[in-house]
Design brief:
This protein has about 240 residues and is mostly helical. The protein has 7 helices and 2 strands; from the N terminus they run H-H-E-E-H-H-H-H-H. The longest helix is centred in the middle third of the chain and has 32 residues.
Amino acid sequence: MFPIWVTGIIFSAVYAQMSTLFVEQGTMMNTCIGSFKLPPASLSIFDVISVILWVPLYDRIIVPVTRKFTGKEKGFSELQRMGIGLFISVLCMLAAAVVEIMRLHLARELDLVDKPVAVPLSIFWQIPQYFFLGAAEVFTFVGQLDFLYDQSPDSMKSFGTALSFLNFSLGNFLSSFILTVVTYFTTQGGKLGWITDNLNKGHLDYFFLLLAGLSFLNMLGYIVAARRYRQKKTC
């Protein structure tokens, strides 16, 4: 059970980008709606909207349909549900990287690389990455919570639930650690590095692609661990 739990830490590191680098990316995009300026952090509402949409969609449509094929009461097992969420997290990071590639391309075209100003690319291009993250959250976090509760010994149910929430804090630490390591190695030899004060000069897209790669490897590791795991029979 421990290897399966560990994979949730890397997912939580991806989730942490919503309140950190997604916001930084948004500050360098066009946030204006007419005369109103949209705070970049407010786009996290689309993660909430995604969760609100996916929860009933999963319960009312996905579960009944998959139940016919799998014969399982919940449609998917907890392990399958988590695996789907980890796959969607890869798509989330890829979407963020594509938006950043578009943003940097526009910055070069308009000769804004040396200027720490926002490029005229609507911040609403970020919506897909928030929607992917919300979907991944529904599949992974909920699936993991159910899995750890069901598979923990009867006397340790609360501990199993606590482990699920521990992923949040460890994921934030891991995110900071990855950022520190990337900054250290990409600034060697006097280079600016991937993540600079002026993101128009940096390569935030590389960082998102790195997280996509780590998420993909994490998913592969999860698949191996899930296939070897023997579930405890529950009543």
